[in-house]
Amino acid sequence: MSKNYVEMTTQIAAQAGEIKKRVPDAMSGFYSMSRAATADGALDKKTKELLALAMGIVQRCDGCIGFHVKALVSLGMTKDELAEVLAMAVYMGGGPALMYAADAMTAYEQFTA
User: Fold this and answer.
1) Exposed/middle/buried for 78, CB within 10 Å: 0-12, 13-18, 19+?
2) Three-state SS for 109?
3) Residue 12, Cβ density class (10 Å: 0-12 exposed, 13-18 middle, ≥19 buried)
4) Could you say which of 33, 55, 75, 88 has the lowest number of CB atoms within 10 Å?
5) How far separated are the first and last CA of the chain, in Å rounded?
């Protein structure tokens, strides 16, 4: 059974919007931290997103995989760049990370279709 990362990220974004309506200060703080953490600095935004994807894979977070692959596709990530990040995630996370690395490849294929 394949996961639909396009649909998944759409649903999560909608529910996150609902959470933001109910606790706007908390969610604004999270989004502010996200913007600051991913902004270009000593590392560029693409490098930071690659790191976030690897962490999402090792943490086994489907939503993280979806959102970071989506961001990376918009930043011009190539399939070869993705493969190298997946190799690092599997190296650090072992067999379970391989399962989520495969899902990240599926997400890439879905967002680039």
Assistant:
1) exposed
2) helix
3) middle
4) 33
5) 18
Cβ-proximal residues to 66 (8 Å cutoff; 6+ apart), any chain: 5, 6, 8, 9, 12, 107
pTM: 0.94
> Over 90: is that where the pLDDT of 25 sits?
yes
* Domain ranges within the chain, ordered by starting residue: 5-111
- Give CA–CA dist 17/6, Å, rounded: 17
Quick one: pLDDT at residue 2? Answer: 85
Amino acid at 40: D
User: Quick one: DSSP state of residue 42?
Assistant: S
Q: Which two tokens stand for residue 15?
A: 């529910």
